[in-house]
Fold this protein.
Amino acid sequence: MPTQKPRLPPSVWLIFIGLAVVTMLGVFGNRGGADAGSTAIPYSQFQQLLDAGKVKQVTVSGNMIRGTLKEKLPDGNTSFSTLQVPADLAGTLAKHGVEYSAAPSNDALGTLLSWVVPPLLFVGIWLWASRAMMGGGGRGGLGGLGGGLFSVGRSRAKLITAETGIQTTFDDVAGVDEAKAELHEIVDFLKRPEEFGRLGAHIPRGILLVGPPGTGKTLLARAIAGEAGVPFFSTNGAEFVEMFVGVGAARVRDLFEQARGSAPCIIFIDELDALGRARGASPITGQDEKEQTLNQLLAEMDGFDRSVAIVVLAATNRPEILDPALLRAGRFDRQVLVDRPDKKGRVDILKIHLKRMKLADDVKIEDVAALTPGFTGADLANLANEAAVVATRRGGDSVSMDDFTRAIERIVAGLEKKSRVLIPNERRIVAYHEMGHALVALAIPGSDPVQKVSIIPRGIGALGYTMQRPVDDRFLMSRQELENRMTVLLGGRAAEMILGDDISTGAADDLAKATDIARGIVMRFGMDEHLGPVAWDTEQANFLHDQPGAFWQQRRYSDETAHEIDQAVRAHVEAARARAVSILQANREALDEGATALLAHETLGADDLPKVKQMAA
């Protein structure tokens, strides 16, 4: 959609036209140098008439001389006008018998141009620039004059009413049944306040949607707007923050004034962390504008009249940085977790996204959901689109299960890079590396089943990959399961060691992940026998992110304990590597067979993998 260029309002154009007319009248009014009904004569003729005593009356106005004669001029007129010539020049010209006269001066035009035109240009450019920066029109005086500049303190929230409402409803949201039930209660409260208030209950003031990115927080808000049937003000936390102190607070006041005039209604603030960051968190840099805006929001939520049905709905994926005053009882006292969906939730989400797609007979939504543990609603929507793109690219009549598998590989591992040609030795190392992962996973009971092994490069740095398919969603893991996962991760390095050549850099990512698991065993979960059940890593501030340590942490233990932690982490990683080497040595024939098959076919499915000896856990 093209962007509309900012235009000046009609009232400003009228002002410009009026000033231009005045300018032209002033210029052309003095251009002739003579009045209507009088005869313009040269100044030399006026001097002769004056010397002859034929001038009856004279009026002098600046350089203009107007008067009447005792006799008529040749044209029959007795009134005359002339422009005065300086006396010294007139005398010199008269001595030489030269007829002389003066022409109208252009000073009037120059004066008007210098005093009127520059201010007009300056005002026009200033109005155009201010409206362009502030977003065009708006409410303001003088018929819109400066509407953008004078509306800087007004709220930019988008108002959605029953007439202009969106079509999203709770039927379009899946995988978050508990959050839907909680928010459905708020909608019912707004629609039938008397039913809920008969026992003394009052409507909640604030509801905070908390969850990782892509889990559907904004979609839930859109569903509320479609279901509520009441005015819905939608805005973003960043829209309140400006470089000028006081602007954000003014926008908060204006938003709540509009809401009180439209009650019952809902205010939705997306990305609340942009507005509600904890005060005093950054003592080095000034935060006056953000703090004033936050203080105004706190004051407005405290000032709610209990009889006014206004609900403030907000969403964030960083609740750990919010100011505690926002989360206290009476403000955002209801926090609704919108988490990643489980397998059943993923099935429900996929049904929504796949209902308009033409699926092949081999596609089972339950199987697709089983392949996508940890996927959010946004990830599943992207998966459905990628699968349709893959099917379209191959010219298929419908989307098959293989298309979904390829789409998952595209999302998880990256784009295939068949143009990246490896030298034979590197290709051989990659084949043994990936087959090492696969065989260790097959040999350990309870590991996730291996679905595919490939040595086709993908993404930025992946030269191959081993895809495992989880059987169930897991929320708890035992120490043995963590150790099994480390062993599978180190299967690639173990295969390179058994191959006999020098080890390569291909295990860098595996080593990083295995070290993180070992550090978790020692520092977070208290599973190390030597260090005991002590949580040495206690400051996990960013609980919504998968990777710990996203923020700087202060060490709260001695150097001696730090040394013991390092030794324990190393011991766990070394034990996992030794176990992986032992498994592959016992299955050396299967390792060579699988690597040879990988070099020949580049990709092997679960049925193509060689058989291995089952190892005790």
